[in-house]
Amino acid sequence: MNIPKPSDKALVPFVSVDHMMKLIHHEGVEQMLAGLAEYIEADFRRWELFDKTPRVASHSEKGVIELMPTSDGDVYGFKYVNGHPSNTADGLQTVTAFGLLADVATGYPVLLTEMTILTALRTAATSAVVARLLAPRGSKVMAMIGNGAQSEFQSLAMKAIVGIEEVRLYDIDKAATRKCAANLEGSGLRVVSCDSAEDAMLGAQIITTCTADKQYATILTDNMVGSGVHINAIGGDCPGKTELAPAILHRAGIFVEYPEQTRIEGEIQQLEADHPVTEIWQVLTGQAEGRRNDEQITLFDSVGFAIEDFSALRYVRDRIKGTELFHPLDLLADPDDPRDLFGMLQRAKG
Ligand code: NAD
Fold first, then answer.
1. 213 lines ligand 1 (CB under 6 A)
2. Distances in Å between the alpha carbon of 303 and those of 32, 124, 211, 256?
3. Ligand 1 atom index nearest CA of 304
4. pLDDT tens digits for the chain (350 residues)?
5. How far is CA 176 from CA 34, 144, 146, 148, 149, in A?
6. Measured distance CA(337)–CA(347) in Å, rounded
7. Backbone phi and psi for residue 263, each to the nearest 5 degrees, phi listed first
8. This prediction's pTM
9. Active site residues
10. Which one of 84, 92, 94 would you pick to mutate in the ligand 1 pocket, going by the greatest count of ligand atoms within 8 A of its CB?
11. 210 CB less than 6 Å from ligand 1?
């Protein structure tokens, strides 16, 4: 059979799960979290440049499948991601993802990559960028409520980027806490396994909630939250899925990625549509105030926004240059004569 080899311009670098893990070990987990944080912060600072839209979600009884697109005018990116809290009972991940970058000038893809692991890293890096901005100065202790797939990444990002020294773990499933504690052994963090969320929050300046349940859950009640803490609420990221009692939201200064998306998916879906929130990019660029005083409760109502994935894709693209951490993928049909697609097909018949 006379099948022509695809030309270089039609081969798309593909980063597999195996490549991604090698890249992370090559960089070092904490170094990569810090690198991602730099890219995310840089893109948040040029926020106004980007095309922005709430993610396109397809909901079903058991979960959601979402597309998250954005572009800075030169490069376009999107992520495919699911969220299925009941998956773990069947031995499957709650969240899996892959993503793509493309050149806006030609529309040709320039990177295709796994993003399940990359999403955990970018979510943790974003949490830490925001905590560095809003958490009480000198924060050293974090409560980590929900000890699933995201939890170690969250803990390590807070260590590398914010300077957290102790994580206090709590999960309704003790096996999850044991797994998280074992994975964090030797990380340099002091790890304390706790029997209740209240216990986990003792002495914590940062409280991360990262549970998965497709309902209005109350992981934190109002009386559990003292003044001055920073809440990093990760798990409420879908319509009908929240973690905090509404009374906490009324006491807190609320910070969000993209209000149009967070009002649909975040903790603030429990509030009136005009409840005031502050956009993180505006705090980063000095256009809005961050933490007002030592008593204020700050809340990052995290849902995950496309620009964070775009930053992560950019980071991977830059880091794999000159390495062997990708496969050239024959993804694009590339006839010698661009208009002779059919002729190319015929020639492949041999
Ligand atoms: P996971 O299923 O691996 O872990 C969730 C953990 O929460 C489980 O160990 C479960 O036992 C625990 N849990 C459930 N209810 C609890 C409760 N009441 N108290 C304490 N623990 C409880 O899921 P994951 O991948 O770690 O993701 C966690 C959540 O974060 C999901 O809802 C996911 O959609 C969300 N998420 C958000 C972002 C973002 O950008 N905001 C990114 C990734 C994931």
1. yes
2. 21, 12, 13, 8
3. 40
4. 444 555 677 799 999 999 999 999 999 999 999 999 999 999 999 999 999 999 999 999 989 999 999 999 999 999 999 999 899 899 998 889 999 999 999 999 999 999 999 999 999 999 999 999 999 999 999 999 999 999 999 999 999 999 999 999 999 999 999 999 999 999 999 999 999 999 999 999 999 999 987 788 899 999 999 999 999 999 988 888 899 999 999 999 999 999 999 999 999 999 999 999 999 999 999 999 999 999 999 999 999 999 999 999 999 999 999 999 999 999 999 999 999 999 999 999 97
5. 26, 12, 8, 6, 9
6. 13
7. -65, -25
8. 0.95
9. 237
10. 94
11. yes
- Dist CA 187 CA 75 (whole Å): 36
Which pair of structure tokens corresponds to residue 192?
Answer: 């304390």
Q: Which residues contact 36 (CB under 8 A, 6 or more apart)?
A: 121, 122, 125, 311, 312, 315
Q: Are 101 and 110 in contact (CB under 8 A)?
A: yes
Torsion angle in degrees (nearest 10) through CA of 155, 64, 73, 119: 20
Q: For each of the domains in the chain, give its residue range(s) and CATH number, in order of start.
A: 11-117+307-347 (3.30.1780.10), 135-305 (3.40.50.720)
Which ligand 1 atom is nearest residue 151's CA? 26
Q: Please give the Cα distance from 60 to 65 (Å, whole number).
A: 8
Which stretches of 18-162 are assigned E, i.e. beta strand?
56-59, 64-71, 75-83, 97-103, 109-114, 141-145
Pocket test for ligand 1, best of 234, 241, 302, 311 (most atoms within 8 A of CB): 234
97, 118 Cβ separation under 8 angstroms? yes
